[in-house]
Structures are given as C-alpha cells and as structure tokens.
Amino acid sequence: MATTTDRVNEFESRIGGVTVKGKAHSLSAWFVLALRLMMGYAFLHAGYVKIVAAEPFSAVGYLTHAVPEASPLYGTFQWMGTTTWFAEFLTVAIPWGEFLIGAALIVGLATRFAAFWGAFMMLMFYFSNWSVEHGMINGDFAYMLVFLAVAAFGAGRILGLDAYVEKMDFGGQPLVERIPVLAYLLG
C-alpha cells in the first residue's frame, strides 16, 4: 500500500473568531470513503428491510408509544404520531428516505445532500431514543457526526459520482461553476 507524504492535505476553518487547522494523513481518504460506504449500507439496508417487510412499516406506534417522556421533544413526537397526515408522510418518508440516502452515499451522488438528511434523521432518532443516564453521547449522536463528517470531507468525490458530475461540461464550463449551489449538494 502506497501513501503519499509529499502532498499533505491541509485544511482550515474559522467560526466565531476561532480558527482551527489540520493536516490529514494520506490514508484519510480511505477512511472517509469507508465512513461513506458504511453509513450508506446501514441506511440502504434499514430502508430496504422496512420497504419489503411482510408487515407494512408504520411510524405511528413508535412515535406514540416508544419515545420516552423524558425526551425534550416528547410533545413533538406525540404530535407527529397523532397527526394523521404527518404520520402517513413519515410512514413513507422514513423507509424511502433511509433507502435513498443509503443508495446516494454508496454511489457517491449528491453526497452532501444525502448526508445532511442522514444527519437530520439521526438527530431525530437521538431525541426519540432519548437516554442520557450514560451521558449525552450515544450511537445516534455519533452517527449524526459521521454523516456530518462525510459531508464536510466531500466524500462523494472519493470514488463517487459527485467527482464526475461536478466536472461535467455544461455550456463550456464545469457544472458546479455554472450552477454554484450544487457545491452544497454534491461532494
């Protein structure tokens, strides 16, 4: 396995007057790819199982009976589970959302968009599975951060379709230059 040390991947970000800098190891790309594929498979599988299940998936029972009363969003989840149109929406959106997020991550297409929605779903799962007796960090929170890392590192450009879509010629210039908002969706 060859690694390149002459081209260091440096990154820097400034938020609220605080600047952080870092240098990624050349193997980092493989780990970012692994995170993208792992979360892609996990979500694709979770969605697929719900879609093809013998008993149709329904969000209602979970929202109205499984969310602990201690959750800061308990009332919100109760509303979601008892508001017919919203419960019906979630009954379709959850399995298909998981499936499509997973598929997008696996092929690396619209990766930032998919990772954002994956992070959002994990945030909602975090509050719906509320349990802080062992601390504020649990698996749902950790997976939310993995989705955000996948988005931040532009994981779709690593053996993904986003790298090709961004460079597609559109009116004499790369697609992302022609339509800059795509930089927030691809990558």
Brief sketch in words of this structure:
The protein has helices spanning 28-52, 60-66, 74-82, 84-107, 111-128, 139-152, 161-167, 175-178; strands at 9-15, 18-24, 169-170, 173-174.
What does this structure look like?
The protein has helices at residues 28-52, 60-66, 74-82, 84-107, 111-128, 139-152, 161-167, 175-178; strands spanning 9-15, 18-24, 169-170, 173-174. The chain has 187 residues and is mainly alpha-helical. It has one domain (29-184). The protein has a two-stranded antiparallel ribbon with strand order 1-2. Helix 4 (84-107) packs across helix 5 (111-128) and helix 5 (111-128) packs antiparallel against helix 6 (139-152).
Q: Report the helical percentage.
A: 55-70%
Shape: globular
Radius of gyration: 19 Å
Summing up helix and strand content along with how strands pair, one would put the structural category as mainly alpha
Instruction: Provide mean pLDDT, rounded.
Output: 91
Our measurement of the CA-to-CA distance between the termini, rounded to an integer number of angstroms, reads 25 Å
Strand content: 5-15%
Major sheet description: 2 strands, antiparallel
**Elements, N to C (H/E):** EEHHHHHHHEEH
Q: Numbering strands along the chain, what is their spatial order in the largest sheet?
A: 1-2
Count every beta strand, where a strand is a DSSP E run of 2 or more residues: 4
Total number of distinct structural domains: 1
